[in-house]
Amino acid sequence: MASSIHFLDIKGKPLLSRDYKGDIPSSALEKFPLLIIEQEQSNNGVPILNDQGINYIYILHNNIYILALTKKNENVFSIMIYLSNLIKVLTNYFKNLEEESIRDNFVVIYELLDETMDFGIAQITDPKILKEYITQESHKLELLTSSNNNEMKQPPNALTNAISWRSEGIFYKKNEAFLDVVESINMTVNHNGQILMSEILGKIKIKSQLSGMPDLRLGLNEKFLNSAKESGNNASGRSGIELEDIKFHQCVRLSKFENEKIITFIPPDGEFDLMSYRILSPPLKPLFVINYKFQNHSNTRLEIFLKVRLNFKQKLTCQNLEIFIPVPDDIDSPKFQTVKGNLKYLPESSCIRWKFKSCNGGKEYAMLCELLLPSTLDAKNLEIFKKKPIKFSFNIPYFTTSGLQVKYLRINEPKLNYQSYPWVRYITQSGDHFEYRV
Questions:
Q1: Smallest Cα–Cα separation from 418: which of 149, 172, 93?
Q2: Residue 379 contacts by C-beta under 8 Å, 6 or more apart in sequence?
Q3: What whole-number distance in Å separates Cα of residue 56 and Cα of residue 70?
Q4: What's the rounded Cα separation, in Å, for the pair 208 and 205?
Q5: What is the pLDDT of residue 285?
Q6: 16 exposed, middle or buried (CB, 10 Å; 0-12, 13-18, 19+)?
Q7: Which domains are seen in the chain, by residue range?
Q8: What is the pLDDT of residues 199-226, one digit of tens each?
């Protein structure tokens, strides 16, 4: 991978360097500021430079360049990931990674560079593991030694144990595990109510407060796991789904999942993402049905009417529903009428926010607003406003659009044999892109 790692200030002046292979001359570092200037002039924002057979891979963080140099045709993304993880490690140690913190912690940084990379090959970059045997106090490095100070302690369990993500000796008075199934929906609906684009981004999040070394077994419904294309209905009343981009936390035993479709793992302590998945073009129906009308009165007054029907079961409750209705810039004296919800004009976003704290599925609500337009309003700007979509933001608890269901979550700790309490919660929410074209 990298031949050397360098820390430079915003002007390209070296602050700290670590040379692993010695195959790149020091003069190469002097050319880096000139290469940055050439890159800025060419409007090329790619953080990879090449000069005379030397590759410059860098990340700019808080006006500091973290730079890796290499002569070989290496995997650039691997080096970028290492540099990104190195920033996280140093930030974890010094809170703020700045020029001053680098000058005050030379010893610690050199030690961390030696532990995180060996002869240019990335090693340990987990701050929790590094902090078990590298401590920092008063800007000095301290190594944990044995009581007689003549021999080093054994390496921490995280280095020698297969379970590097969890340390031993964890104890809670009340043992609990909280599991959240969170699905974010991105959707675009045209003015005829047809879905143009839809996807589900899902995560299974766990907050573990369990003592010892618990072994957890999570069972999901087979229709979800098998990603079947077969006919039939899933829990949401739609046909089978196809999972894509499934990712597991490193604690999951992949062979067990592939063979038996069961997720087994020893969890890290605290909060973590157990699993993430993506469903492209799922068989969804629009969660909301809208009726939008506007009337322009001689470019001096505008009336907007919007009716929204919550297109899901009555037993479900939509929380924190916000509907952002676009309006022209520089409107004057907005007047609102509605029976349900709160309406507010947001001039900085050129929209009206219709907000509901809570509303049930199957319900229908309407609003009417009257806007005075400035006499200088350009007809072209009015046409631009007409093309802006209505955007939604919401949360629907106790519901998943994909039909994922947790059948069971079993917790086993044979040594302590304590009673545990698993909690499961489902949440469907709007993603970054949930809009209706009008």
A1: 172
A2: 299
A3: 7
A4: 10
A5: 87
A6: middle
A7: 4-142 (3.30.450.60), 175-284+401-436 (2.60.40.1170), 288-397 (2.60.40.1170)
A8: 999 999 999 999 999 999 999 887 777 6
DSSP lists the bridge partners of residue 60 as 65
Rg for the chain (alpha carbons), in Å? 28
SS (H, E, C) 174-192: CEEEEEEEEEEEEEEECCC
In eight-state DSSP terms, residue 152 is B
How many CA atoms within 13 Å lie on the side-chain side of 214? Answer: 26
Two tokens at 229? 């294309």
Residues ≥6 apart with Cβ < 8 Å to 310: 287, 288, 318, 359, 360, 361, 362, 363, 364
Backbone angles phi, psi at 387, to 5 degrees: -90, -5
Which amino acid is located at 137 in the chain?
A: E
The amino acid that residue 280 corresponds to is L
Q: Hey, what amino acid is at 374?
A: P
CB atoms within 10 A of CB 222: 11
Strands 48-51 and 54-61, sheet pairing: antiparallel
Q: Using DSSP, state whether 232 is helix, strand or coil.
A: coil
* Proportion of the chain above pLDDT 70, given as a percent: 88
Tokens of 419: 């009673």
Amino acid at 352: I
Per the DSSP assignment, residues forming a β-bridge with 275 are 204, 248
Instruction: Show the DSSP H helices in 5-156 as ranges.
Output: 27-30, 32-41, 76-94, 99-104, 106-116, 127-133
- In percent, how much of the chain has pLDDT > 90? 47
* Nearest residue to 409 via CA among 278, 260, 267: 267
Decide if 107 contacts 141 (C-beta within 8 A): yes
Q: Under a CB-based contact definition with an 8 Å cutoff, are residues 300 and 375 in contact?
A: yes
Chain mean position to CA 198: 19
Under 8 Å between Cβ of 49 and 29: no
First vs last C-alpha separation in the chain: 52
User: CB of 344 within 8 A of CB of 323?
Assistant: no
**Alpha carbons 208 and 266: distance in angstroms, whole number:** 10
Q: What is the DSSP string of 350-402?
A: TEEEEEEEEEETT-EEEEEEEEEPPTT--HHHHHHHHTPPEEEEEEEET--SS
Please give the Cα distance from 44 to 135 (Å, whole number).
40
Q: Which tokens is 78 given?
A: 């691997």
> In this predicted structure, what is the pLDDT of residue 126?
83
